[in-house]
Design brief:
Largest sheet: 7 strands, mixed
Bound molecules: nicotinamide-adenine-dinucleotide
Helix content: 25-40%
CATH topology of the largest domain: Aldehyde Dehydrogenase, Chain A, domain 1
Oligomer: single chain
Radius of gyration: 25 Å
Length: about 500
């Protein structure tokens, strides 16, 4: 059986002691296995990144920029190849896999502007004959730990900026779909990135714990579920590292009574069920305000009836399987329990039959959901859309703001004033106005509030430059030596 290796110091290395299965979710078959790094293997990778740091840090910005231009070219040329790898392990449909790679490419494009991003500031004559300037320098060796649901995009979000800033990187992808990270790392080598600058450590908690505790790792970027994000944040921060840990989500889409019904229904179905609901920006709660609820639920149901679910490699499929059998069963258990909690199961995805052993589940629509029900409170991370009915705009905002998570939120309306007020008061990191999945473009940054992000900076874009660099401020003077004198007073601006 093919074993997916690590990539350390520019070469593939493998371990046989501990491995994990890698499935093709569309068939349910285990097609590969992945090596799980031991503590010793992880330390070897950290040593490779440490050794590569001085030379990469000293590489001119022009040469670094070249690598990103070449990487952009290579990734564009080989997008469909990477998409096929990704779909075979994740299950999402090929067009969606290509879409994910395109969104990841935005950060490679952003990184080509690194000369501009890394510019410092300068103030002349802050005191008589004294100037001050600031520079941004790399933090050193950084660890990037990524989730299963975007096996190409999230690694690209992190490593593009981390490398551009002159750091060396240890990428620890999800063990469920690990090949995309390897593909990307090898492509970077082809683009001219020196050995040891980007290393891939395949593994699980054993490798992660070493990354969190090792003194040579100076910063940790993490994306995954909230409980793990919180524990990563606490452990790495206790060890003195800089950390950004992005967690789970429960994204609400508020539909006001004046919204265009067809447009809102299209958006809800697309954002709830795309990628089988396994997106951190998926809409999982539809908040129907006032009298629109009945017609909105009806319009969504009509669209659900036409959805095509099947293998990601079939161009007719709009939605693929879930990542594992356990995850599919967990998602199904929420649908099973919703009725007894007092909700109305309008469409039960468990009833759909599939002619396959793949990890498929039909989509579900659950009406009359309320806070306090498990189906509302938990992140389900599957093709399940809950509808909460509220009377007023104020009720909708209260619901959004009291939610445990605060990743993305959307409002659908034709009233500009209401949309502006919503933007002003919604407690979430990313807001969409008639946009259901408001993932910002690469020149802005991505991140949530509340329990969707632990740390201070968002990911990619301008925030990532702050996260992956340290500021150094230099004060300079070139006085006439004849004016020099001993002065024990604290320096004052003159
Ligand atoms: P996960 O938390 O299970 O795993 C994420 C990473 O952490 C993986 O690399 C995994 O190997 C590692 N990991 C898992 N358990 C660990 C442990 N006990 N100790 C140390 N490391 C551990 O998440 P997942 O299931 O791969 O991804 C889905 C989750 O990620 C969802 O909750 C989703 O909302 C979230 N997510 C959030 C964003 C965001 O931007 N906020 C983006 C994508 C995914």
């Amino acid at each position: 059986m093919e074993r997916i290796p690590h990539y350390i110091n520019g070469r593939r290395v493998s371990d046989a002691e501990r491995v994990a299965p890698v499935y093709n979710p569309a068939t349910g078959e285990q097609e590969k296995e992945v090596a799980l790094a031991s503590a010793a293997r992880t330390e070897e990778a950290i040593e490779a990144a440490r050794a590569a740091l001085p030379a990469w840090r000293a590489t001119s910005l022009a040469k670094r920029t070249d690598v990103f231009f070449r990487m952009r070219q290579l990734l564009t040329e080989r997008k469909s190849e990477l998409a096929a790898v990704l779909t075979s392990e994740h299950g999402k449909v090929l067009s969606d896999a290509e879409g994910e790679i395109t969104r990841g490419l935005e950060n490679i494009e952003f990184a080509t502007g690194l000369t501009h991003m890394l510019k410092g500031e300068r103030a002349e004559q802050v005191s008589r004959g004294v100037d001050v300037h600031s520079v941004r320098q790399p933090v050193g060796v950084v660890a990037c730990i990524t989730p299963f649901n975007f096996p190409a995009m999230v690694p690209l979000w992190m490593i593009g900026s981390a490398l551009a800033c002159g750091n060396t990187v240890l990428l620890k992808p999800s063990e469920k779909d690990p090949s995309s990270a390897l593909f990307i790392a090898e492509l970077f080598t082809e683009a001219g990135l020196p050995d040891g600058v980007l290393n891939v450590v395949q593994g699980d908690k054993e490798a992660v714990d070493v990354l969190l505790d090792h003194p040579e790792v100076k910063a940790v970027s993490f994306v995954g579920s909230t409980p793990i994000a919180q524990s990563i944040y606490q452990r790495a921060a206790a060890n003195g590292k800089r950390v950004q840990a992005l967690g789970g989500a429960k994204n609400h889409m508020v539909v006001l009574p004046d919204a265009d019904l067809g447009m809102a229904a299209d958006a809800a179905v697309s954002a709830a069920y795309g990628s089988a609901g396994e997106r951190c920006m998926a809409v999982s709660v539809l908040v129907a305000v006032g009298g629109i609820a009945d017609s909105l639920v009806g319009a969504i149901q009509e669209r659900i009836d036409k959805l095509v679910i099947g293998p990601g490699t079939d161009p007719a499929s709009q939605m693929g399987p879930l990542i594992t059998a356990e995850h599919r069963d967990r998602v199904a258990s929420y649908v099973a329990g919703a009725g007894s909690e007092g909700a109305t199961v309008v469409v039960d995805g468990r009833e759909q039959q599939f002619d396959s052993n793949g990890f498929f589940l039909g989509v579900s629509l659950i009406d009359n959901v309320k806070p306090g029900m498990k189906v509302y409170d938990d992140e389900i991370f599957g093709p399940v859309l809950s509808v909460v009915r509220v009377e007023t705009y104020e009720d909708a905002v209260k619901l959004v703001n009291e939610n445990f998570y605060g990743n993305g939120v959307a409002i659908f309306t034709r009233d500009g004033g209401a949309a502006r007020q919503f933007e002003f008061e919604a407690e979430a990191g990313m807001v969409g106005v008639n946009v259901p999945i408001p993932v910002p473009v690469g020149s802005f940054s991505f991140g949530g509030w509340k329990n969707s992000l632990f740390g201070d900076t968002h990911m990619y874009g301008p925030d990532s430059i702050r996260f992956y660099t340290r500021s150094k401020v230099v004060t300079t003077r070139w006085p006439d030596p004849s004016t020099s004198e001993v002065d024990l007073g604290f320096p004052q601006v003159k």
